[in-house]
## 1
Amino acid sequence: MAHPEATPTAAADAPATKKYSGALRIWHWGNAAVIAGLLSTILFLKVIINMRGLLPKVQERLHEQGVEASKEQLRGIGGLVSHRIWDWHIYLGVTLAVLLGWRLVAELAAPTLQRFAHRLRRSKEHQQDAPAESFRLRHSVLVKYSYLLFYLMLTVMVVTGLILVYADDVEALHKIEHTVKEIHNVNMYLIIAFIVAHLGGVVWAELNKDKNITSDMIHGGEIRK
Ligand code: HEM
Ligand code: HEM
């Protein structure tokens, strides 16, 4: 099958529709904001506040002022602060889970032209029809597969996160808590790697042949075929 750029008139004759549905765009930006929030909670807990590094300094400062506080007492107070941030992590985590459900419904409810499977199929066709054409990230099958990989990582993050939420209350979940935490932790680095590559790719595409792809993700863009 010929690609639209190979037969411009046929493509131009087809009726235009939004490339990305409203539901997908809301998901995309909502998901990006919530993930940024989740990563910020970890940044605060593990780096900016870093209770383990902070408590000896607090103890030293109190000592200078004539107040003696044991490590246990300080850990208790530090725990209050950490708890607040973990609460936010969980609120954002549950929001991420809801958004993942939203993404699934958006996919199932979308007309064929707006489905991910359609975009993947068109990329494959493009690669077959115009292999000699210079590389464009927008048409890259590899990029589409990276999205599939991301959806898998997102699912793992949500499932492991929800297990951690209920690990204290459900005996069976408590038993696997340690392993689940490890998976949750390692998966975070994979998600960060995706985000770095994705943002790098978007900037590269904008600077080269695919100007306006970001605005397409805002207003929906246009697709004819
Ligand atoms: C946490 C941050 C982000 C995540 C996890 C993320 C994830 C994704 C995913 C999964 C897709 C594929 C959607 C689909 O077709 O099903 C996508 C597409 C896209 N994203 Fe992001 N995104 C993030 C941030 C951003 C930002 C900040 C920008 C713009 C500056 C951006 C621009 C785009 C664009 C232009 C596309 C469409 C690219 C294409 O047609 O292949 N994303 N993003
Ligand atoms: C991009 C998304 C996410 C990132 C980057 C992330 C990151 C992390 C990290 C690094 C930890 C610390 C694990 C450890 O202590 O070894 C953690 C713990 C946790 N996460 Fe997530 N997480 C995400 C999504 C979620 C989701 C969707 C949920 C569930 C709704 C969730 C719930 C939890 C819970 C309950 C804990 C354990 C908190 C505790 O030890 O008290 N997370 N997360």
## 2
Amino acid sequence: MKTILRIDWQVKDIVEGFIYNEFEGKGLYGLNGKLVIQPEYQRNYIYADGKKDVAVIDSLLKGYPLGLIYFNKNGDLYEVLDGQQRITSIGRFTTGRFPILDQNGMQQYFSALPKEEQNKILDTPLTIYICEGEESEIKQWFKTINIQEIPLNQQELYNAIYSGPFITKAKEVFSNSTNSNLQKWSAYISGNVLRQEYLEAALNWVSKGKIEEYMSKHRRDDNINELETYFNSVIDWVSNIFEDVDASMRVLNWGELYEKYHNNSYSSNDISRRVRELQGDYFVKNKKGIYEYVLSGENPEYRKNLDIRIFDEPMKKAKYKIQTEEAEKNNISNCPLCALGGSNKIWKLDEMDADHVTAWSKGGATDIDNCQMLCKTHNRAKGNK
Ligand SMILES: [Zn+2]
């Protein structure tokens, strides 16, 4: 790989003919059409938050260095390897797409800045390394230099490594902030579409967690039929079963639940009513656990995922005191089950555990009236039933 350093370009050269695509969220071209700002393997523009983009402009106005920028030379064209977020921020500012705040806290767009401040930005010299090499070399190296800006997350890195027709098509659907299905999908998926988190979910579901293997295998495919069909099956399944949506649904792996339960038949009405009940149940601490619990037909194995509220220490102590005083008076054990067997052993507090007289699953509350202290042996025996 050949590398040369260029210090003769200024900001005004780079933003000449700058084109930004609002729909794709991408800075497209600079250097009068000769610079491709967001090549296929680059992620989308994510600085447009009124902070990171503004910080880039502030540092130019203060004369701070912008940091190294890397281009890849590809025939007559250049592609930005590292620096696209900074370049897109500058291009968007000089084309009037966002304001900065002046000393008086007033919003100022580029065109309203004093001429000398405009020139200060446009005349800033840049330090640019130009690389020329094989695609595989460049990508490998891109992985290494990706330290300047916000680091790539795992999925963005996979997109770079396995770039090709498959991922290009997949991004058109799953990384597209103008996709009209996003609203519906966002009920079941958390994260940022531009940071590839919807794509990641889609790939995770269809590949049963083996994203990298799947991307490598399908890299040269010219369609994404399987990926799309599977994703839609999962979304249709979950949205048909559950009438309501709530925030805890977004952290679940719906692909995994689909695999396990999609052959069962459910009454959407009954299951949705049960979910609402459990959502409103004070004793259910882990609301995320509700969905698999109801899909499994309320299998006790999944009850532990609900993290049912347990008796706290003050309640246990209070109940222990009542039971022990009563037992001493009657000369019987303070464990009611030991007492039934004729024992008069008085257990210490730390030798006993709290038990729901009526189990939570049968409607028992976690309050002092439904609490009894049992010796550890009896508590374990009861818990196993
Ligand atoms: Zn006992």
